[in-house]
């Protein structure tokens, strides 16, 4: 019971100090907030001090109709078991954002992952010199909604034509000629 | 001495899947290491966006090869949270049996499998033979040995029969007597002890820095940080079990913890079989119409469970359509498998690299998903 009171207090502090656009509880023990993109590092630092010491996941969602990318940071508190989702939206055109590796060093490869699959650049995370997952990739980032894998694979791996055409009786003819032993 | 570049992998060196590490070595010591994932990338996250909710059931178990059931569980949990459907009481208990059997199977495989990198080849043979007995039970319950597609959103596919329950009970009795032999064979072996004791260390600061979870975290931090205890799902809050913890995480502790956790899983399954309701439904429909027309209400949710390597989670976004809008997978070994390899594999010796991977619990299929 104590932990719920603590969380309520924490949320009221967050609401007072930051511009929180949306506050929901998607499930038991889970809090989700949508914040302005400039506030994310401050909020993550604040939550880390309050016990959300583990960064579980950083992920990206492509809202193509809104022309936005949504970044979601999942934090977990091991003492009270509450998951915190901090979400923010950034522009889809020339997507750039601030890296959080100073706060959570473990975010480094999540950011690289998002960079490769969505094309979001993270300022401060310099480790993009060589592709990690997608070597020799020559198309737009594949997890974007406007990337069509079927079209890509048809272009990249065109259907081959086979010159040899077997007639319907080909197998029988071979057997007749005695090249393959007929098993009856 | 001249620096050499060597490759670990991309076959399976102490792991379950194709993954490569480029190691720059000076003599026998690794100076720099570069993880090279991507050889097993099957594009699951993209595929899931293009398939029906029902279709995905056959796809998701393949994300993590040695322990497929956790995927079914998080997927089902996420959909249940979004639709708000109630899971029948009996289904919760059956799910726990499946998850714990899968945990034992995975622990047996890695307890035996540790024999590979240390050169104790009786280990893998024993481990796989005993794991096969669990696969037999799975086959009886679900019809499949590895990929079960048994835990579905809204419950489980089918009820357990009396004979299966008897079979599980006799298997647990067998395993409880059998496990001490593993201790004699592997954990007490002086070769194994010399290779792992006071080596392959994982200090607590590194755990927090990388975000390592599971056995690695619990053996270093000294707290019972297990999602089954901290944020219980299914009916884990109604069973008693003990989570081993320590303040010193070397290779030996982490392997020993797998051994200890297997006993706890046996204890959990015994309690489940006792407490499980005898009769009742095992599945509630999640949406009206046939399974091909399932729709999940709009929303975003993150669900997570404890797998053998740590926290395993799905971030799911639904737009109220017949397909998911986006699913992101949090593989349990992502932190130690990528940043961990880059930062903390250097300093170990070449022959310990595979052992490092195995005791840290790196599982490439969930990194390349």
Automatic annotation (TrEMBL), chain A:
InterPro entries: NADH_quin_OxRdtase_su_C/D-like (IPR037232), NADH_UbQ_OxRdtase_30kDa_su (IPR001268). It comes from the Bacteria. GO terms for molecular function: NADH dehydrogenase (ubiquinone) activity. Residues 33-150 form the NADH:ubiquinone oxidoreductase 30kDa subunit domain. Belongs to the complex I 30 kDa subunit family. This is NADH dehydrogenase. The lineage of its organism: Bacteria, Thermotogati, Thermotogota, Thermotogae, Petrotogales.
Automatic annotation (TrEMBL), chain B:
GO terms for molecular function: NAD binding; oxidoreductase activity, acting on NAD(P)H; quinone binding. It holds the Pfam family Complex1_49kDa. InterPro entries: NADH_Q_OxRdtase_suD, NADH_UbQ_OxRdtase_49kDa_CS, NDH1_su_D/H, NiFe-Hase_large. The keyword Translocase applies. Gene3D superfamilies: Cytochrome-c3 Hydrogenase, chain B (1.10.645.10). Belongs to the complex I 49 kDa subunit family. This is NADH-quinone oxidoreductase subunit D.
């Amino acid at each position: 019971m104590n932990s719920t009171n603590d969380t309520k207090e924490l949320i009221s502090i967050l609401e007072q100090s930051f511009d929180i656009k949306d506050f929901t509880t998607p499930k038991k023990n889970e809090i989700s907030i949508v914040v302005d993109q400039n506030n994310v590092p401050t909020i993550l630092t604040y939550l880390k001090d309050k016990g959300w010491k583990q960064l579980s996941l950083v992920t990206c969602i492509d809202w193509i109709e809104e022309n936005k990318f949504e970044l979601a940071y999942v934090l977990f508190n091991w003492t009270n078991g509450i998951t915190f989702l901090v979400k923010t939206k950034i522009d889809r055109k020339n997507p750039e954002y601030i890296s959080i590796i100073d706060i959570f060093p473990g975010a480094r490869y999540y950011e690289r992952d998002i960079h490769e699959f969505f094309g979001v650049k993270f300022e401060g995370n310099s480790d993009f010199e060589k592709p990690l997952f997608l070597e020799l990739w020559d198309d737009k980032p594949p997890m974007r909604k406007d990337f069509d894998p079927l079209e890509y694979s048809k272009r990249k791996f065109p259907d081959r034509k086979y010159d040899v055409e077997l007639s319907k009786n080909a197998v029988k003819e071979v057997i007749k000629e005695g090249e393959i032993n007929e098993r009856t | 001495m001249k620096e050499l570049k060597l490759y670990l992998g991309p076959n399976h060196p102490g792991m379950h899947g194709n993954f490569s590490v480029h190691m720059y070595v000076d003599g026998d010591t690794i100076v720099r290491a570069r993880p090279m994932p991507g050889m097993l990338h099957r594009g699951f996250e993209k595929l899931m966006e293009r398939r029906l909710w029902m279709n995905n059931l056959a796809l998701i178990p393949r994300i993590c090869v040695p322990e497929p059931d956790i995927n079914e569980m998080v997927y089902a949990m996420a959909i249940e949270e979004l639709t708000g459907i109630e899971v029948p009481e009996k289904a919760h208990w059956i799910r726990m049996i499946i998850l714990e059997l899968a945990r034992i199977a995975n622990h047996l495989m890695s307890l035996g499998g540790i024999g590979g990198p240390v050169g104790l080849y009786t280990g893998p043979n024993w481990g796989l033979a005993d794991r096969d007995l669990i696969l037999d039970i799975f086959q009886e319950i679900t019809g499949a040995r590895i990929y079960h597609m048994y835990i579905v959103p809204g419950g489980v596919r089918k009820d357990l029969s009396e004979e299966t329950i008897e079979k599980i009970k006799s298997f647990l009795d067998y395993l409880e007597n059998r496990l001490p032999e593993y201790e004699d064979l592997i954990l007490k072996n002086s070769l194994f002890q010399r290779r792992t004791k006071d080596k392959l260390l994982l200090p607590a600061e590194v755990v927090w820095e990388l975000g390592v979870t599971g056995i690695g975290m619990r053996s270093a931090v000294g707290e019972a940080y297990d999602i089954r205890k901290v944020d219980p799902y299914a009916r884990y809050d109604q069973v008693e079990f003990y989570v081993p913890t320590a303040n010193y995480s070397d290779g030996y502790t982490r392997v020993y913890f797998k051994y200890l956790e297997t006993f706890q899983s046996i204890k959990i399954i015994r309690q489940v079989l006792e407490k499980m309701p005898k009769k009742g439904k095992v599945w509630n429909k999640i949406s009206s119409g046939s399974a091909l027309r399932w729709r999940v209400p709009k929303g975003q949710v993150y669900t997570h469970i404890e797998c053998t390597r740590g926290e395993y989670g799905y971030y799911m976004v639904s737009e109220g359509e017949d397909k998911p809008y986006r699913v992101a997978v949090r593989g349990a070994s992502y932190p130690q498998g990528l940043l961990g390899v880059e930062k903390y594999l250097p300093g170990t010796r070449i022959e310990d690299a595979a052992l490092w991977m195995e005791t840290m619990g790196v599982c490439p299929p969930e990194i390349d998903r």
